[in-house]
Design goal:
The complex is a heterodimer of chains A (about 525) and B (about 400). Chain A has about 525 residues and is mainly beta. Chain A contains seven helices and 28 strands. In chain A, the strands form three sheets. Chain A has a 22-stranded antiparallel β-barrel. In chain A, a hairpin with a 5-residue loop joins β23 and β24. The radius of gyration of chain A is 28 Å and the shape is globular. In chain A, about 35% of the residues are buried. The mean pLDDT of chain A is about 80. Chain B is elongated and about 105 Å long. Chain B has 19 helices and no strands. Chain B is about 30% helix and about 0% strand. Chain B is mostly helical. The chains are: A mainly beta (about 525), B mainly alpha (about 400). At the A-B interface, β1, β2, β3, β15 and β17 of A face α1, α9, α11, α12 and α13 of B.
């Protein structure tokens, strides 16, 4: 049978199966549509030509859908008076649509005293803001398998490993082992910006690291070819000229496997060990100057081992909760993060000392991995108060090793925040921070007064920020007003308006509006 | 530095002022309340004094033993008090009535006892064999509404632990249609002050106090699965997708001062802004980028003179220090290919090695070479230049 006929048969059978009459089911579901509109101005830093303010008008829509108890398995058990644990099937998804409608994309740029071009032609990266449709997560979850010991997730799931929530097109299994212990296994393809309905994961690897090419016309404008993007060369509009980027290495499918084992140890200690490896084939179909002798067939993009352990002890009147977190990159041969912290709580007071050491690393396709990076060590002391006034304060000091730059340097800073109820409906919140050392100096304070009840809240806020990034220090002031109102059950609107005067005396404005519709019919 | 010390001193003073309160402040019972803001107690009552007189709990809370639902009202009425106390409604006096009713004034409405039902599944009847004090800890000096006498989740878990204990949070907490804990139950009609359910003194180290929204990394690592009991995946992506600039995390005029945080990498920008184009697109559009410096702002270069020398032997290469400290900040404008003309091992370039001095033969070099040689081939363009024993570096 011809392959096309077979495909048609499979598709036809699937459609027929979907179209067949099926018993109606009233699933428990929860859906939320969130529409976010934002408008603000960016300051243009050009001295001559062009506009000084660039408008951004961003529209984002998110649709979250949860279907609980697909197939009515739990409901059937309940009706039959069998309240024991059993299989429960559910669906969880969020779809995101983004669009940019401001002059940020559509304006023309002065690229010389007499020459202007479309911004999108000059800066291909802007295309990433123009439009996107992404499935942030979407998976079927089956709980209660194997007598309640096993859960299965399939679809676009979030990663189980410790180094951030990375989406994965594949499956995960969560198995309850001995009491208090669980094993999580996952596998599939890492979701990248180039994936189908993909959302960008951590891809800070420099564009050539993704082996990006662009289609460029020949001199006579009749034929063209793909070639490595030359960033300094301006693209001229033409029938066969395109800014469409092709990044084969970023589009390469990245096979990923991960595992995590966690559980309770004696002495009220909880521990978790996780491992993740991802590898992709070399995209050398456009072999050229980068791989003259051919690239290796595969490369590991990451291989990480992470461990965390925490405990909760009582030492006299003090509750002590220590945490140890370590993450090693086997692909880089280094410990990327080591963190020790503890919470010492007594009554309404808690102290939170912590120490961490971080070494920078990137996807192994990036050449920045082999640059001489300097690890940094941070020591911090936090304090938390949970009385009629709730407050937190944190003092930190960071040490940069120096290494080949010669001599270690320190940066220190602190911030504090407190909130107090003035009346049943009014609350006051204040914050202050001071940062110094490497990167610039900064001091800021803000105060916020909120008034509201269960259906509406209005807040006003004023802030002063003093900053000196390099040499041109200055004071900026800002004020903002925001309001939220629950119009009806499941319907809420939020809005915010922010005005500021920056360090150079220019005024800025930002507006935000959110419409949230939640439908939960069985509530 | 002195300015910094002065700033820190001011900060400490501010915190002290905020936390200080006169001795005549809110009553102790209110400060201990798990509800925020704490409700004002309506009655003067001492469980401890009644217990000392031998009054059993069930004498006043008569319905407790048979109650099967947490919403049952188990508070005693005035009739229970009358069994022992003489109450004369016909002749209300401030002395007699005010002994129990706080703020009593003849003719004025009384403060009402506010006891909201807990958003839990609980049967007192199922716990009939357990002494009351085991869950409702005695409060020696407490009055009515003395909330420490209410059981906490920790006191439940003291008995209900695996394997016989609850497998899911929703075996005790009420569930929403999503199957997760319904945290919105604080918004019951008639309870406008009640806050959404949130961990206060987290059993799993996840107390949601002020500042938690901006610093919850450790708690999320510690209680990864526990977060999912209340929050679905979209709750995380609402912030971490980098769509909205939350004022609580990026304060006012953040666009103007974000460079400081980005350079220092105090907060990891990549936890929300995950692709390089997020920074590069904006920087190029507003004119803060490598190309902008060359073509659009000739009179105001972004980097100072001597930032990146283009000839070998020049000592003024100030960009090296910044790149070693945080190359992520460089990546907000620059791409790898802008490093290659100087740092590639190709004969056509300057062949300035960006590696640390101890790189050749190091374990880190060997690990990366084993993991992904593609990256090595970006600069070492032929196979014979590749490997951790290559001596061609300058």
């Amino acid at each position: 049978m011809a392959r096309s006929r077979l495909r048609h048969l499979v598709v036809g059978t699937a459609l027929a199966a979907v179209a067949l009459p099926a018993p109606a089911s009233a699933y428990e579901f929860w859906t939320r549509a969130r529409t976010i509109g934002q408008a603000y101005e960016l300051r243009g830093f050009r001295v001559f030509g062009g506009e000084l303010a660039i408008g951004r008008r961003r529209l984002t829509q998110l649709l979250t859908l949860t279907l609980h108890d697909l197939g009515d398995l739990e409901r059937t058990r309940r009706r039959a008076g069998r309240r024991g644990r059993g299989v429960v099937v559910s669906w969880h998804s969020t779809l995101r649509f983004e669009h940019e409608l401001g002059t940020f994309l559509t304006g023309r740029l002065a690229v010389g005293p007499t020459r202007r071009q479309d911004a999108l032609d000059v800066i291909p990266e802007l295309g990433a803001s123009a439009f996107s449709l992404a499935l942030l997560h979407g998976y079927v979850r089956v709980d209660g398998l194997g007598g309640g010991r096993l859960s299965l997730l399939a679809g676009r799931v979030s990663s189980v490993a410790l180094d951030g929530a990375l989406p994965l097109d594949g499956a995960q299994v969560q198995v309850a082992l001995a009491p208090g212990w669980s094993l999580e296994l996952g596998g599939g393809l890492a979701v990248r910006e180039a994936s189908w309905l993909g959302v960008g994961s951590y891809e800070l690897d420099g564009t050539p690291g993704a082996f990006c090419h662009e289609y460029r016309a020949a001199a006579d404008g009749t034929a063209g070819r793909w070639r490595l993007i030359e960033r300094d060369e301006l693209v001229t509009d033409g029938r066969f000229t395109s800014d469409y980027e092709r990044c084969p290495q970023r589009q390469a499918r990245m096979a990923t496997a991960e595992a995590a084992l966690g559980g309770r140890l004696p002495g009220r200690v909880e521990a978790r060990l996780s491992y993740r490896v991802a590898a992709s084939p070399s995209a050398d179909s456009l072999a050229g100057p980068l791989y003259p002798d051919g690239a290796p067939r595969w490369g590991k993009n990451l291989e990480r081992l992470a461990a965390t352990a925490s405990a909760r002890w009582r030492v006299g009147p003090v509750e002590v909760s220590p945490l140890v977190l370590a993450r090693a990159s086997l692909a880089h041969g280094l410990v990327e993060r080591l963190e020790l912290s503890a919470e010492l709580a007594r009554g309404r007071h808690a102290l939170e000392p912590s120490a961490s050491r971080v070494s920078p690393s990137f996807d192994t396709d990036s050449i920045w991995n082999v640059f001489a990076g300097e690890p940094s060590t941070e020591l911090a002391l936090g304090y938390r108060y949970a009385g009629a006034t709730r407050a937190v304060a944190r003092l930190w000091a960071r040490r940069y090793d120096g290494g080949e730059s010669g001599g270690a340097t320190w940066a220190v800073g602190a911030h504090a925040e407190a909130e107090r109820a003035l009346t049943k409906r009014a609350r006051l919140r204040g914050r202050a921070l001071v940062d110094g050392g490497y990167g610039g100096e900064r001091a800021a304070a803000d105060g916020e007064l909120r008034w509201g009840d269960a259906t509406a809240e209005v807040a006003g806020r004023a802030a002063l920020v003093w900053a000196r990034p390099d040499t041109d220090g200055g004071l900026s002031a800002a004020t903002s007003v925001r309001a939220s109102w629950a119009l009806a059950s499941g319907v809420a609107v939020q809005s915010a308006l922010e005005l500021w005067r920056d360090r150079e005396g220019q005024l800025g404005v930002r507006g935000l509006g959110v419409l949230e519709l939640t439908l939960e019919p069985n509530r | 530095m002195s300015r910094l010390v002065a700033g820190l001193a001011l900060l400490a003073l501010g915190v002290a002022l905020v936390l200080w309160r006169p001795a005549t402040g809110a009553p102790l019972a209110a400060e201990r309340s798990p509800l925020y803001p704490a409700p004002a107690p309506a009655l003067r009552f001492s469980h401890a004094r009644h217990a000392a007189l031998g009054v059993e709990c069930l004498r006043c809370h008569a319905g407790a033993r048979a109650s099967r639902s947490a919403v049952d009202l188990l508070l005693p009425t005035e009739a229970a008090c009358r069994e022992c106390h003489r109450i004369d409604r016909a002749a209300p006096t401030a002395e007699a009535c005010g002994a129990c009713h706080r703020g009593f004034a003849a003719g004025a409405p009384l403060l009402r006892v506010s006891a909201l039902p807990p958003a839990l599944k609980h049967s007192h009847a199922a716990h009939a064999a357990v002494p009351c004090q085991r869950c409702h800890a005695p409060a020696p000096a407490g009055g009515f509404g003395d909330t420490p006498s209410l059981p906490t989740m920790e006191s439940c878990l003291a008995c209900h632990r695996e394997p016989s204990g609850p497998a899911r949070c929703t075996e005790c907490h009420l569930a929403a249609s999503s199957g997760r804990i319904d945290t919105s139950l604080g918004f019951f009609a008639g309870a406008p002050d009640r806050q959404p359910l949130r961990p206060r003194r987290g059993v799993f180290g996840d107390a949601h106090g002020p500042g938690f929204a901006s610093d919850h990394r450790a708690a999320a690592a510690r209680a990864e699965r526990t977060c999912g009991a209340c929050h679905d995946d979209s709750f995380c992506s609402d912030c971490h997708a980098g769509v909205v600039r939350p004022l609580s995390y990026h304060p006012d005029d953040y666009l103007g001062v974000h460079a400081i945080e980005a350079r220092r990498a105090v907060s990891e920008c990549s936890t929300c802004h995950r692709v390089q184009s997020f920074c590069v697109g904006c920087h190029e559009r507003v004119g803060v980028s490598a190309r902008a410096a060359a073509e659009w702002t000739p009179s105001r270069p972004f980097h100072a003179a001597g930032w990146a020398a283009t000839e070998r032997g020049l000592s003024q290469n100030r960009h090296a220090r910044e790149a070693r400290r945080n190359v992520s900040a460089c990546a907000s404008c620059h791409r790898e290919d802008e490093c290659l003309p100087c740092h590639s091992a190709d004969a056509g370039g300057l062949s300035v090695s960006p590696h640390p001095r101890s790189w050749r033969g190091s374990a880190q070099c060997r690990a990366l070479d084993r993991a992904n040689r593609r990256m090595c081939l970006r600069c070492h363009v032929t196979e014979d230049q590749v490997g951790c024993d290559f001596r061609g570096q300058r």
